[in-house]
Design goal:
373 residues; alpha/beta; FAD/NAD(P)-binding domain; D-Amino Acid Oxidase, Chain A, domain 2; six-stranded mixed beta sheet; 10 helices; 31% helix; binds flavin-adenine dinucleotide
């Protein structure tokens, strides 16, 4: 079985890794467009505190977060460690005890069907500050030990290297898909034709333009996210600091190298406008320093831009297309692709092989919006 994967972000690299491990012949292609979402993603893996109520999203996010430990073990077996994954826990912070009561209740309900949530506890403002020193001193917290963070760049590179060890081949260039008699048969790449039995589209926010020449109107758009990396003074040990989740769409995520990542903007309708804007920086800095004034003296080390693949709703676009044999679509992971991506990539690979899927994929039908209209 020969499978071509178009797009080597978190979803594509995971699909490549899993397929190559299963012995499939794998070719993965990437144009390395500016603004790959995976390379900009903050790296929070903690769906349990999320405000999203959609059960189909939760079913996938729960499995996605719960799949990480298995993936990390498998990658270690393949000689890949150091992907920035760590179970540092997460704190939902607020100065409103009622808000924290609601969050605590929700997390406790979630724990009933997922032990990975870990231990749940309430923290005073002092206890919260002990875990995350720059925090504002009137913020109390709900602490969840099962929250994790991952470095999307390191993980993707590890998946690709491990896939290559299992025989996958990585090409650079912009692919277009070839269709013959209602079946995908290969791609055009840098003037060459590469044939395959199946093609997986993991082209993120660029998936719409890849599929439109085939007459497929995929409802996915780029949503720009600007995100800042702050370096702390005096080589502070930030390696065990928890993910901080205020009651907004913003957050703070710490990594091992005295670095705290803060963000991010969610700019629907941005198009592929790869720019750091004055308003973007203002928004992320104001939100971060409001919650963690202790970061005021940190150094603005880097600002990244990523285009989230935003679908018609919160659910990914995952599945096959009845009118086109051999095509699998796996995109639209929006703001939670680093949580869902490795697991969605695994499912996409299984779909390409024609294997049974443990989950009913009907809610994630890639053409669901088109079908409704
Ligand atoms: C600022 C920001 C913060 C985020 N924070 C989090 C977080 O904390 N937790 C979380 O779970 N998620 C987070 N996300 C979301 C997550 O990063 C994305 O959902 C996820 O990375 C999407 O992965 P992907 O593989 O679908 O797409 P991408 O990573 O965008 O990869 C798509 C790839 O396809 C390639 N491509 C496209 N077209 C072609 C073509 N024709 N030929 C060859 N190659 C092509 C592109 O070059 C690109 O490399 C965040 C996103 C952003 C932007």
């Amino acid at each position: 079985m020969k499978v071509i994967i178009v797009g080597s972000g978190i979803v594509g690299s995971s699909a490549a890794y899993h397929l190559a491990r299963k012995g499939a012949e794998v070719i993965i292609v990437d144009k390395f467009h500016q603004g790959q979402a995976t390379a900009a993603g903050a790296g929070i893996v903690c769906p349990w505190i999320s405000k999203v109520e959609n059960p189909d999203w939760y079913a996938l996010a729960n499995r996605g977060a719960g799949y990480y430990p298995t993936l990390i073990t498998d990658l270690k077996e393949d000689g890949e460690s150091g992907v920035g994954y760590s179970l540092v826990g997460a704190i939902a912070v607020s100065n409103d005890p009622n808000e924290l009561n609601d969050i605590e209740q929700k997390v406790r309900r979630n724990k009933e069907d997922r032990k990975e949530v870990g231990e749940i506890s309430r923290l005073t403002s002092k206890e919260a500050q002990t875990l995350f020193p720059p925090l504002r001193d009137d913020l109390e917290a709900v602490h969840v030990t099962g929250g994790a963070r991952v470095d999307g760049r390191l993980l993707t590179n590890a998946l690709l290297r491990a896939a290559e060890k299992h025989g996958a081949i990585l090409h650079t260039g912009e692919a277009s898909i070839i269709v013959t008699n209602n079946k995908v048969t290969g791609i055009q790449l840098n003037g060459d034709v590469i044939s395959a039995d199946s093609i997986i589209v993991t082209a993120g926010a660029w998936s719409k333009q890849l599929l439109s020449p085939l007459g497929i109107d995929l409802q996915v758009e780029p949503q720009r996210g600007q995100i800042a990396h702050l370096k702390l003074q005096d080589d502070q040990d930030t390696s065990k600091w928890p993910v901080v989740l205020p009651q907004s769409s913003h957050y703070l995520v710490s990594f091992d190298d005295s670095r705290v990542v803060v963000g991010a903007t969610r700019e629907t309708g941005s198009g592929f406008d790869y720019r750091v804007t004055a308003a973007g920086i203002k928004e992320i800095m104001e939100e971060a320093l409001l919650v963690a004034p202790g970061l005021s003296d940190s150094t603005l080390h880097d600002v990244r831009i990523g285009f989230r693949p935003a679908g018609p709703d919160i659910l990914p676009l995952l599945g096959t297309i009845s009118s086109l044999d051999g095509l699998v679509i796996a995109t639209g992971l929006g703001a939670s692709g680093l949580t869902l991506g490795p697991y969605v990539g695994l499912l996409a690979g299984d779909l390409a092989l024609g294997e049974e899927i443990e989950l009913d994929l009907t809610p994630y039908n890639p053409l669901r919006d088109t079908l409704v209209r």
